[in-house]
Amino acid sequence: MPHSIRLRTFRDLLNDGAVVDDPERIATYTTDQRQLFTGAALAVLKPTMTKQVADIVRLAAQLGIGIVPQGGNTSYCGGATPDASGRQIIVSLERMDKIREVDPVSMSISVDAGAILKNVQDAAANAGLLLPLSLGAEGSCRIGGNIGTNAGGLSVVRYGMTRDLLLGIEAVLADGTVVSDMRKLRKNNTGYDVKQCFVGSEGTLGIVTGAVLRLAPLPTRRATAWLKLANGAPLAELLALVRRESADLLTTFEFMTARSVALATEVLTDPPSLRAGPAGAVLVEFASSSRHLDLDELLEAVLAEAIEFGWLEDAFLAQSGSQRTAMWRLRETIPEGEKRRNGSVKHDISVPLSSIQRFLDLAGSHVRSYDVDLELSVYGHVGDGNLHYNVLVPPGVDRLEFTKRIDGSLSLQLYDTAAALGGSFSAEHGVGRFKKHLLERYGDVGRIAAMRRIKTAFDPANIMNAGAVVRPLGEKSAC
Ligand code: FAD
Ligand code: MLT
Ligand code: ZN
């Protein structure tokens, strides 16, 4: 069937303007956020309600057209980008952005999957509650994308990942069936936990159209500090001390090397004078909803102990909201700093906390023997055993060529190192299209077999984000 007729059938389902096929207008949807790959799409469809999503999926299934669900298109592994065939449609959830209900008593929020994370945080805060999911892309990523990638971010150490916040789901399966399970229950042991199948599925099992998320009491007090790590400071021990003494109030423990801090400093118009110590810096935060606790006093006492052990060269406690914001801005601007410098080859690894120093030592020696002139930007959510071990693209060097070269050589050494320590090649950024070969290389054979069966059971015709994450049963490996 010619393209124009196929498109007309979709136009018949949706309102005017909801089917966009003008190449210029869809360019930002067909290129991944890091601009590593540009695919092609028949069109971008923008439904406004769940029924329209179900109609689209049913029609696509009839016509044999593939579907790529898309939220904010901020993910890092190309999972939201169509392939090059031009035979897939992108279903963007951007027009499904309503906050459906905030329930302060049940401490939950029900939203459309296209709601922007920041707007959901704000709606919760207006009701005196906290949506404890926070990441640098929160102004543009959407809840469906957060579920699709099982996003982590900056407060996982206290509240867990997206998976831990999901109470209920509404989703459209590959044949148009609607799973409508928007309940707010903490307890519901009634068979398979279907909603969890969608978490981290990166659009390969169905389209999430709604979600119920768990909220927490809104912190009214925070104590935030910038720590300059002394030479040889043991990161895991420092974290253990801070965590143990924090009375479970630790919400953030973010590590940054001096190079990463400098990258952020270079792009900020009014950068704070904070620097890293010889072994880097840590941004640490305690938060509590209680008005009766003196968090500054608690954090100060903990840090005094760390200084006594010789682990810190210095520590600065934020004395005001603006000092706190400045510390956070420095941390959150690192990805932008990398981008402005010429980009980086990202390695979003995790290892057990007990192996984090070992990983840093081994990875450092791999990098030095690969090319002693390479520069690194290493930082991350060390509270979760997650490091962004990024190799900076040298100035003046072609970013895509460099990425390809590193991906096929040094990256594998770094991932091998993480794997040998019981770690992961993707802690929070997913698999998408870019890391499929890594799943095949490092994934447990039985686990991959189970994933392929789940994929095929949910989507026998392989229309949902084909080419991402995992091969369905019967498809040969291209690796
Ligand atoms: P998209 O990129 O649009 O999609 C991601 C995947 O989910 C795709 O496979 C897509 O097909 C699928 N998908 C999207 N919507 C749906 C849906 N409704 N139903 C089913 N599948 C769907 N990530 C972290 O985990 N932690 C961080 O700290 C972090 N920091 C970041 C900082 C910056 C500056 C940037 C640019 C990104 C960062 N990310 C981080 C990555 C990214 O923001 C997250 O992966 C985010 O969850 C993606 O959401 P999105 O709406 O942009 O999803
Ligand atoms: C972050 O933690 O800032 C992101 O996950 C990493 C990145 O943007 O490279
Ligand atoms: Zn991160």
Describe the model.
The protein is an alpha+beta fold. Helices cover 36% and strands 20% of the residues. It is globular. Bound molecules: flavin-adenine dinucleotide, D-malate and zinc ion (ZN). Flavin-adenine dinucleotide (FAD) binds at residues 33, 68-76, 79-80, 93, 113, 135-137, 141-142, 144-146, 148-149, 151-153, 202-203, 207-208, 335, 428-429, 432, 465, 468. D-malate (MLT) binds at residues 136, 335, 346, 388.
Question: Which structural class fits the helix and strand makeup?
Answer: alpha+beta
Looking at the overall shape, the CATH architecture of the largest domain is 2-Layer Sandwich
The CA-CA distance between the termini, in Å, is: 32 Å
Q: What's the CATH class of the largest domain, please? A: Alpha Beta
**Major sheet summary line:** 8 strands, antiparallel
Count of beta strands: 19
Average pLDDT, all residues:
96
The CATH topology of the largest domain: Uridine Diphospho-n-acetylenolpyruvylglucosamine Reductase, domain 3
Give a quick summary of the entry.
By secondary structure, this protein is an alpha+beta fold. Helix content is 36%, strand content 20%. It has helices at residues 3-13, 23-30, 50-63, 117-126, 143-149, 156-159, 162-165, 194-198, 235-245, 258-267, 295-308, 321-332, 334-341, 356-370, 399-407, 410-420, 436-442, 445-458, and strands spanning 19-20, 43-45, 66-70, 88-92, 99-103, 108-112, 129-130, 166-173, 178-181, 206-214, 216-217, 221-229, 250-256, 281-288, 312-317, 344-345, 348-350, 376-380, 386-392.
